[in-house]
Amino acid sequence: MTALLTLHRDDDVALATEDLVAGRPVRDGLVARDDVPRGHKVALRDLPAGTPVRKYGQVIGFTTRPVAAGEHVHTHNLGFQIFDREYEYGVAARPEERVPAGERATFDGIVRSDGRVATRNHIGVLTAGGHSVTVARRIAERFRRQEGLPGLLDAYPAVDGVVALPHALGDGTAGEHGEEAAVLRRTLTGYARHPNFAGFLVLGREAGRVRSLAEEWGVGADTPVVAMALQESGGTRAAVAEGVARITDLLPAANTVSRRPVPASELVLAMECGGSDGYSGITANPALGAAADLLIRHGGTAVFGETPEIYGAEHLLVRRAVSRAVGEKLVRRVRWWEEYTARHGGSMDNNPSPGNKAGGLTTILEKSLGAAAKGGQSNLADVVEYAEPVTAKGLVFMDTPGYDPVNATGMVAGGAHVLCFTTGRGSVFGCKPAPSLKLATNTPLYERMTDDMDLNCGLIADGECDVAEMGRRIFDLVLATASGRRTRSEELGFGDEEFVPWRLGTVR
């Protein structure tokens, strides 16, 4: 059996499917010249200095010195440089088939009185700036369930939990100006309107300002919102006790919900990759893309982001744009990121982390091609700003940074009900109020972290499953999760600390 996997007939490199030892024959006529870790790249032919190197049939970088066939290809001999990419808007967009309404898959969802569909049933604690962060966290902690111990939620089994959403970026009111304030307003509004919340406690320093927040957020009449001013609560201990009492008053009504069959067309699935490795682009990411295609066929929506991590692959996405206008929106966001990094003296190639590189990824171009595989094969239906409501059906791209908590926060604010998070290096994550599923890209990782991983997509690389079948498994798992099945992240309590709105200028 060959120790190399070639992904496209035009590729200059192949993936090592096991650790290679220098001098070992790895394919007919090809001998490994170096020790090569599993998941890293091997040159298939001699490559002169300055040669564009292809993987997935696309350019992932340029050789910085001559590279011989059989040599390990990585940061020591492959570099990033900007090159022209042709934007062929919409040339690959095709009419998409949809499963007839009466035949669509369903999940057991919670239907709010105004018709919005939820997958979880939380109470939220929102804050108006940094002065109420500690109080919000302490209130939520009082309601956390602990295995084997009595708790305040024991009498309310239909309530999934109380989630604090603290931040220190201002109060997000219309009185604040500038791009950062607008982003914060969209984020807080998106969480306040999220169907996975049954009600809110809103904390702030002054009573009038706190009450105005709920009005500006436009929270629906069926979502109870309780405002509480810290200035009037008698200090921190008293404020925590009052907050606990206020939330306790909300619990009986929140506990009255029940689940019923809902078509999959109501679902918005968020997709993310973090701690990527050399397997991300050939196992978990394309399998998640196949699951997204299935959901879209059933009338649903799939959204992904991390603009710096589709850099170098955006030309493939705009080919599938439903219109030139949609494709141009994506290109404008890519240009914004180029200007942004240049202003701060950085480079788009700064993105691959040390962990990414240890896992076999060399340049942002290579990482992006694997990350873009989450987008499956569906048409690109829309491109939205960070935390903007996702209203289009089909595949949607959201402009977000690559930092996992910030990216997830934006997509949940946009309305995502469930998140699928692929990882090859072992990232652990939660994003309450939306449940998070963790998809391992390789079997060794899955076996090391079975407590944290929900599904082993490494079976694809092991030859035990193909991408289409794994996509079906992910789709079924998403529906089960939307129906109330708890994820590993939920069982471990992740998601209470991962609310991180985008602070422009500090996150890249």
Question: Can you describe this structure in just a few lines?
Answer:
The protein is of the alpha/beta class and 508 residues long. The chain has helices at residues 133-141, 179-192, 207-217, 236-254, 284-297, 314-318, 324-343, 354-358, 364-371, 404-413, 443-448, 467-482, 488-492; strands at 4-5, 13-16, 25-27, 30-31, 41-43, 52-55, 58-63, 72-73, 78-79, 106-111, 117-118, 122-127, 161-165, 197-204, 225-229, 259-263, 268-273, 301-304, 380-384, 394-398, 418-423, 436-440, 455-456.
What would your notes on this structure say?
- The chain has about 500 residues and is α/β, with parallel strands linked by helices.
- It has 13 helices and 23 strands.
- It has helices at about 135-140, 180-190, 205-215, 235-255, 285-295, 315-320, 325-345, 355-360, 365-370, 405-415, 445-450, 465-480, 490, and strands at about 5, 15, 25, 30, 40-45, 50-55, 60-65, 70-75, 80, 105-110, 115-120, 120-125, 160-165, 195-205, 225-230, 260-265, 270-275, 300-305, 380-385, 395-400, 420-425, 435-440, 455.
- The strands form six sheets. It has a seven-stranded parallel β-sheet with strand order 19-20-18-17-21-22-23, with helices on both faces. Strands 1-2-5-8 form a four-stranded antiparallel β-sheet, with no helix packed on it.
- Helix 5 (about 285-295) links the parallel strand 17 and strand 18.
- Helix 5 (about 285-295) crosses helix 12 (about 465-480).
- The model has no long low-confidence stretch (mean pLDDT about 90).
